[in-house]
Amino acid sequence: MEKTFEQLLEEHEQHAVAEGELHKGTVLKIGEDDVVVDIGRKSEGLVPRRQFLNPDGTLRVRPGDIVDVVVERDDAEHGLRLSHERAIRIRLWDDLEKAYQEGTVVQGRITERVKGGLACNIGVKAFLPGSQIELRPLHHLEPYIGQEVRVRIIKLNKKRGNIVVSRKVVLEQEQSTQREHTLTTLEEGQVITGVVKNVMDYGVFVDIGGIDGLLHVTDLSWGRLGHPREMVQAGDEITTKVLKFDREKMRVSLGFKQLLPDPWLDASERYPIGARVKGKVVSIAEYGCFVELEQGIEGLIHISELSWSKRLKHPSKVVEVGQELEAIVLEVHPKERRISLSLRQAQSNPWEQLHERYAPGSVVEGRVRNLTDFGAFVEIEEGIDGLVHISDFSWTKRVKHPSEVLKKGDKVRAKVLSIDSENRRLSLGLRQLEPDAWENFFSTRQLGDVLPGRVARVVSFGAFVEIEGGIEGLCHNSEIHSELLGGRGLEPGREYEFKIIKLNPAEKKVGLSLRAALNEADRTDIAAYSPGPATSTIEEMVSFKRASGDSND
Fold first, then answer.
1. Residue that finishes a domain, picked among 88, 116, 138
2. For residue 174, which phi and psi values (nearest 5 degrees)?
3. Whole-structure pTM over 0.90, yes or no?
4. pLDDT value of position 521
5. Which residues of the chain register pLDDT less than 50?
6. Torsion angle, CA of 11/12/18/22, rounded to 10 degrees?
7. What is the DSSP code (8-state) at residue 129?
8. Cα–Cα distances in angstroms (integers) from residue 460 to residues 6, 335, 464, 478, 507, in the given order
9. What are phi and psi of 102, to 5 degrees?
10. Which of 35, 314, 322, 513 has its Cα between 20 and 30 A from that of 544?
11. Which domain holds residue 239?
């Protein structure tokens, strides 16, 4: 018996399902446009085939698979229409609401920059505020775009479809957990791996598990570092050694170089005294330069060991930072972490061959470099100075200061007197270029000679008289006899005749007498005027001469 329309309608209403209900169904058939799904009702439902396609266009279901669907429409005209996409959204929101209630961490992906923060896809679009991205404030958010992140839902409004998430609370929780674990396991001397958080001028902060440890710049390397960035950058993973740990204050001091052997321990064996070594100039000071022989080993070349010949005001005149050079090891003190080096001893010593180039007695030319109270320094070649002592300026002239004869920059000729290579001393003489006036004088003059002389200067005990060849003799007060001069003394600059009464070649001294010279003249004159007996006294002859009006006044 055929059913009436009313019976069919009543039967359909009894088996109809409410729109928006979530069901699990079984895939029965995959058609060209739709997928047939059985949800346990009298008739099967249809889901658009496109809702089961992967991004690459492939189908992700096959007959027999169990899928979530939502009833979109159920009527006699169109049949049962289902939606897989709506089912996913409903399931997702249920899961998100549960994660929000329980504080569960969810996975997300940063998609774009939005006002005040970032957009994060956790299945639906969520808002990640800028203040909730990191533990510390950020200035640039763009680097996070495209990154996978772990977040927690801190606000959720299902009706409006609004979700706010936080990465910061996840990091804080992880940090707290790590910190608790670290505090219970950390010990001094422990080797631990961490991540560089900040690089400062004075050192590096390393996250070693919820605690920041300070790796001071002096503990980064046995060698010299200009800045910690030369070794590490923020974000680097680094293995360090715990040097000190204050559990109460949660302060940790770390060391990196302590994981490597101290290069100074066997420095004496690797750099023996006298060894020729190579290195690079790493710094320059007024007193010398530091040369890196290897990482952690630096030697000092004192300014006095930079050059055999050059007179240095500053080491930068010879070396520069970064320069490669060879040097000789002078001293090694591993405990003090000091090595003394010499650059000049790695080169030939010009003073050792000086005898070959300038034998004593040879004549050299040079330029006056400096004047002192005791003499003049003459440079005969670059860095080789000879001293002309003030006593070697002249045979006869009394030189009180070298500036009376020379000035700085003068070009002069001199004779090499002696060379002391060991003490780097070269003696020169100016007067030795001329014959010895004293030697000539003593060889040609004898006691009793009368010769003219000019009074150079008068002193309390007599007068110094310049005689032939620039030689100076002394006429003592007792040999002047002012009565013979009419009561006057000797006048500086005036010439008189003097008699030699003393010769001392060893001490280069000449004694003169004005009185003896006058008496000698008196005798000559009296003998010419009077044929009287030769036994007359000197006083009588002087009286005779004065009486005749022929006086030397």
1. 88
2. -65, -40
3. no
4. 65
5. 1, 5, 8-9, 11-15, 530, 532-553
6. 100
7. E
8. 165, 68, 11, 12, 22
9. -95, -5
10. 513
11. 186-259
